[in-house]
Amino acid sequence: MEKKTVLVTGGAGEIGSAISRKFAESGYSVVITYNSNLKKAESVLASLPGEGHCLFHAPNTDAEKVNALSAFVEKQYGSLDVLVNNAGITIPVNHDDLNGLSDEWIDKIMQTNFRGGFAMVRAMKDLLLRSKETTALVVNISSIAGVFAVGSNVAYCASKAAVDSMTKSLARALAPKIRVVSVSPGFVEGEYTKNFPPEFLISQMENTPLKRFATGHDVAKAVHSLTDALSFSTGTIITVDGGRLL
Fold this sequence. Notes:
The protein is of the alpha/beta class. Helices cover 44% and strands 15% of the residues. The chain has eight helices and seven strands, in the order E-H-E-H-E-H-E-H-E-H-H-E-H-H-E. It has a seven-stranded parallel sheet, sandwiched between helices. Helix 1 crosses helix 8, helix 3 packs parallel to helix 4 and helix 4 packs parallel to helix 6. It is globular, with a radius of gyration of 17 Å.
């Protein structure tokens, strides 16, 4: 069987690295993109089992780099089976602190979390149509913040709501050859949670029925399940939140 290929944007982060490892363990060639943290990206790449993996510097807001990435994937692999839009940014700002959320940060969040994800799908569409699978897969990493409106700031919540809407629109537009699904975690345990006060994290955990935060591995398992166990799903939102929305 021909080896399949997955592209994971933001592959050096907590969630992206776990997703990259999960797919590498399943025999995929993994292409990891990164923005600024080359050292971490190289460490993740070195940790992946198997062969055929690579790094590519491609911020999803840089059209030239995104197009270069598409050309690289075509030359190196010929097609793409799975695209995981994981790259994202945010900054902690209380929702009632309207002056604390600058126009610059609002634009950066929307450009990276929403526009950048769309740009990746647009750039990779032809490669996905050549997938070795009957139906290629796009997974947009969203957040329950897009539904719950509780998150690091107002713009972040809005950006994830936009991601979920985009998932539904593109699932309809790209069917039947490409499936599009959102995977929507709650709080994910890792480096980023250190940005929040301990009392806030405790309250969030107490309000989670399963009494813990998700891990990157939890999210990675959900993403990977869409390639086999949930292969007839498209245009939907898969929550990985321990019941937090309840």
